[in-house]
Amino acid sequence: MDLFVYLIALIWIVLALIQDLKTREIWNWVNFSLLVVGLTYKSLIAISEKSLETFIFTILGVCMMIIFANLLYYTRTFAGGDAKLLIALASVLPYYSWIDSLAVPLLFVFGLFFVGALYSLVYSTFIVAKNRKGFSKEFRKNFRKNKVWMVVGAILGILLIFVIRENYGIIFGLLFVLFPWIYVYLRAVEEGCMIVSVKPGELGEGEWLYRSVKIGRRVIRNGVHGLSKEEIKIIRRGGKNVLIRQGIPFTPAFLIIWVIMVYVYLVLEIHISEFFALF
Length: 279
Known about the structure:
Layout (H helix, E strand, L loop, with lengths): L1 H22 L4 H22 L3 H22 L5 H11 L7 H33 L1 H33 L2 H27 L1 E4 L9 E2 L3 E3 L2 E3 L8 H10 L3 E4 L5 H17 L4 H6 L2
Antiparallel strand pairs: 1-5, 2-5, 3-4
Helix pairs in contact: 1-2, 1-9, 2-3, 2-4, 3-4, 3-5, 5-7, 5-9, 6-7
């Protein structure tokens, strides 16, 4: 039964991936229907086991993921569709104890970020190849802005590696060293390659303005929720192009981490507590 519901979630992720690549958005019905499927499945498990624990653990896990998803959304790390997909997947994740309700969403988000960072680095190389001049300019500018943090990260990372001398010390040490460089690189990609001028007729709901736009007496701000239908109508009446901040489609990272998670749980049979013991 676990394999069945994991395969259902995999199909839904593939649907979201196709929509994201084609339209740069994930339809609400995909996310909400997956959430319903997950909660229904967990409620059936609770009924068959004559225990509410599984269902309660799931509800707590979903609540934890709602917190993580909102943090990612309001910091503009995730678009709305990605945040909703994260919440929907929380209803299908495996929970066997109270600690799982916190640890499983946290580990899933951490794994998603790790996989997402690798995927974004690979994807961004194709973008950089098409916009070398803009990328080089922004990379030099961001390097000068963040060189102090890059030095601090390198010092802390080296200290962690040599002081702790364990697997997790090496891992976190390397992260401290590499993170400032990755940050500068991705900022340069975003500012130098992902800001595009869009005609009013090509604007879509939820797209992020690069900066606020004044149309007559109305100021349309680059808010976290993106453009509304009403704001798009106003921009179209104004008839001028606007700068839009595009993002890298992130659903492939969801697909990769989901396949890894299913492999770890069902094939390797490694539980959450055993996973932490590896470090």
